[in-house]
Amino acid sequence: MALAGTSGQVKQTRHEARNDRVGAQYADTALVSGYATSHDGWGPPARYFRSRLHVVDEVLGQCRGGDLLDVGCGPGMLVRHLLDARPGDFRITACDRSPAMIDAVGRQTGRHRDLRLSVARIEELPFPDASFDVVLATGVLEYVDVRRALDEIARVTRPGGLVVATMLNPLSPYRAFEWFLYWPALRLLGRAERLLGIRPDRRHGVRRSGIRALTSRRLSGALRTARLRPEDVVFYDITALVPPFDKVARRWTRRWRSHLETTTSRGRRGWLGTGYLVAARRAPDPELTARSRAIPRLRGPSASPHS
């Protein structure tokens, strides 16, 4: 019993430490600004974000509009894009745990009649049940308790509503090399530079991110557990390059910017995607379905059995 209690305390401590790391990343306005500007240019982050935006656009093209929640909205790049590209189609709620991010959304969008802002955690959304026709969770599930987050997403999605979730692909060569070789090498180099007395702003290093990425199969299973039925899986930011060589090659090969369809795949090349998207539907409420079946259908006076 004592061992079980100790194990539980260790897990809780690790969870709190991870939560603190995640929260600290985007509480700083300078980091928020850096995250926003990384969407621009020709480097790996810009290609990743533009490729992801392309597949989100593709999936939302099947949706006419309605009430949309962007949870974990960040500085509002996707929100700004939707307001510009599909004016009047969506009544958007932008939600993020970071007040600094929500402030950035306000600066990006100004006072827009189709937008409301909310500071809240994805595991504890302050919205009534079945509030939204579309829920977007892009770039957020890697940093949270996925099962709790998906339960909340399912709760606020209307029956038949669309859920769009993205995740970094832990099986891609790019992510495996980045996480297990490149980032550790940079941290080791930074420690050596510290011993040599190099100024902190000149040292190499990578901030501890708190990322925990699931494979597409595991995320699809978690969606089903939350009564969200996966309908489509798309891998994006397809690349066989690994850091740091991708920085040079992607700046040199700029065709991707005008041909974003080449950066995505639903087929064999999918394993090369550094991220993926799953589109799912909220399952109908069993009680409502049973109730509708129990109510006899009335036939109008002019209806015929073959109409």
TrEMBL record:
<keyword id="KW-0489">Methyltransferase</keyword>
<dbReference type="GO" id="GO:0008168">
    <property type="term" value="F:methyltransferase activity"/>
</dbReference>
<protein>
    <submittedName>
        <fullName>Class I SAM-dependent methyltransferase</fullName>
    </submittedName>
</protein>
<dbReference type="InterPro" id="IPR013216">
    <property type="entry name" value="Methyltransf_11"/>
</dbReference>
<dbReference type="Pfam" id="PF08241">
    <property type="entry name" value="Methyltransf_11"/>
</dbReference>
<dbReference type="InterPro" id="IPR029063">
    <property type="entry name" value="SAM-dependent_MTases_sf"/>
</dbReference>
<dbReference type="InterPro" id="IPR050508">
    <property type="entry name" value="Methyltransf_Superfamily"/>
</dbReference>
<keyword id="KW-0808">Transferase</keyword>
<feature type="domain" description="Methyltransferase type 11">
    <location>
        <begin position="69"/>
        <end position="164"/>
    </location>
</feature>
<dbReference type="GO" id="GO:0032259">
    <property type="term" value="P:methylation"/>
</dbReference>
